[in-house]
Amino acid sequence: MQLVAIAGHDRKALKRLGRLNAQHRNTLHVVGWTDQTAALMQVASLLITKPGGVTLAEAAECGLPVVMFDRIPGPEKLNAEHLEAARAGIASRTHLEAGVAAEQLLRDDGRRAFMSQQARRLARPDAARHIAQLALGRSDEEITTTPQRIIVRA
Questions:
Q1: 67: domain range?
Q2: What is d(CA 135, CA 66) in angstroms, rounded to the nearest whole number?
Q3: What is the DSSP letter of 132?
Q4: What is the pLDDT of residues 46-62, one digit of tens each?
Q5: Which long-range contacts (CB under 8 A, 24 or more apart) does 9-15 make?
Q6: What is the model's pTM?
Q7: Are residues 73 and 112 in the same domain?
Q8: Which of 4, 8, 12, 142 is least surrounded by CB atoms within 10 angstroms?
Q9: Model pLDDT, residue 150
Q10: What are the DSSP calls for 27-86, one per residue?
């Protein structure tokens, strides 16, 4: 099993993960900020994360089961509840609980496959186009999307 820990710009987390990496050099790969997060999610078996909206949307697009921790009141709490209600994720109250949930999921291929299927049902690959339609009052034929931009025809 290979673990990839992405610390982003959090220097304290990067340092703490680096100390863990010294003990588990063959299985733990520590990364700071990266633009390869989507690619890593596409090959992952499980995502352990805070329940931020963009992260969970990407996980759903990848059909990736999620264990969520450290949710803040408001949007992250609602995001976690939504994913858990859809049976695509598990919201944990503590880091220890998140670790236990992740370990159980990694040992249960059937449950992970079911959660993956549920996550894909939440995916909205045309969300950018739909938002543009609503914001601009335009029809489907007038809006084209690419990974980098939204094109509106006059």
A1: 44-123
A2: 31
A3: H
A4: 999 999 999 999 999 99
A5: 9/33
A6: 0.81
A7: yes
A8: 12
A9: 64
A10: TEEEE-S-S-HHHHHHH-S-EEE---HHHHHHHHHHT--EEE-SPPTTHHHHHHHHHHHT
